[in-house]
Automatic annotation (TrEMBL):
GO molecular function, one term: delta(3)-delta(2)-enoyl-CoA isomerase activity
Protein name: Enoyl-CoA hydratase/isomerase
Keyword Iron-sulfur tagged: no
TM region(s), chain numbering: none
Compartment(s) where it occurs, according to its Swiss-Prot or TrEMBL record: Peroxisome
Keyword Oxidoreductase: no
Highest taxon of source: Bacteria
Keywords: Isomerase, Peroxisome
CDD domains recorded: crotonase-like
Organism whose genome encodes this protein: Alishewanella jeotgali KCTC 22429
């Protein structure tokens, strides 16, 4: 469900579960983590491009699958992915179209360049499910968007558009859907053509607060685990499953 394609020094990771709007299940998380870990250790890969297709990025977690994996410890595939993407040392580029819900949005906070189609719907509906932010979004989104806007999206869970995402800095550029994947690939290739060590050092300097990010992930996960067991969350999840 994660297709891997290496084009020169760029590794393209394509989520391909379109019948489920690219809802990420445990196997997809395992494949993404393994691919990123391999790419980090492979000197032939200088940049990773994460994408869906020109119609859909990701509708978020496959909740039933997510809940089947038990406690949110370091062995949980979702938790492993969160720490892996946060610590990924090489440039990570994203091409986003259509839905970018939950992790479909929070993963972008760990990307270095984000290109979006005009039709994107970003949303962080954690509180609507009786849950709290994840992927260090409680730390990173206020840094990018400012506190009030982050509160709007993380507390109310309101959806926002590509234009709004570009205005507050989550998205670098809005690109017509038909050109999105090619445009993001060209930017990834441009990064890969630069002196590799200079790019790695520059990213490391930009990510100098990475320990703070890891701490935020751990703190969020502890609260997330507690909220998962609450009556209000269980009621919200049951209502969600009945609708889906």
């Amino acid at each position: 469900m994660i297709q891997q394609q290496q084009v020169d020094a760029v590794l393209i990771l394509s989520m391909q579960r379109f019948e489920k709007k690219n809802a990420l299940n445990l196997q997809m998380y395992r494949e993404l983590s393994a691919a990123l870990q391999s790419a980090a250790a492979n000197p032939a890969i200088k940049v990773v491009l994460l994408q869906g297709n020109e119609h859909c990025f990701s509708s978020g977690n496959d909740l039933k699958d997510f809940l089947s994996a038990g406690e949110l410890n370091r062995q949980h595939p979702v938790v492993e992915f969160l720490y892996t993407v946060a610590a990924f040392p090489k440039p990570l580029v994203a091409a986003v179209a259509g839905l970018a819900i939950g992790i479909g949005t929070t993963v972008l906070l760990h990307c270095d360049l984000v290109y979006a189609a005009p039709d994107c719907r970003f949303q962080l509906p954690f509180t609507q499910l009786g849950l709290c932010p994840e992927a260090a979004s409680s730390l990173l989104l206020p840094q990018i968007a400012g506190y009030q806007r982050a509160a709007q999206y993380l507390l109310l869970g309101e959806a926002f558009s590509s234009e709004q995402a570009a205005a507050f800095g989550l998205v670098n550029e809005i690109v017509p859907a038909a050109q999105l994947l090619a445009h993001a690939a060209s930017k990834a290739q441009a990064l890969a053509a630069l002196p590799a060590q200079a790019v790695l050092v520059s990213k490391a300097l930009l990510k100098a607060n990475n320990k703070q990010t890891e701490h935020a992930i751990a703190t969020e996960l502890a609260e997330f685990q507690q909220l998962l067991q609450s009556d209000s969350c269980q009621q919200r999840l049951q209502a969600f499953f009945k609708r889906s």
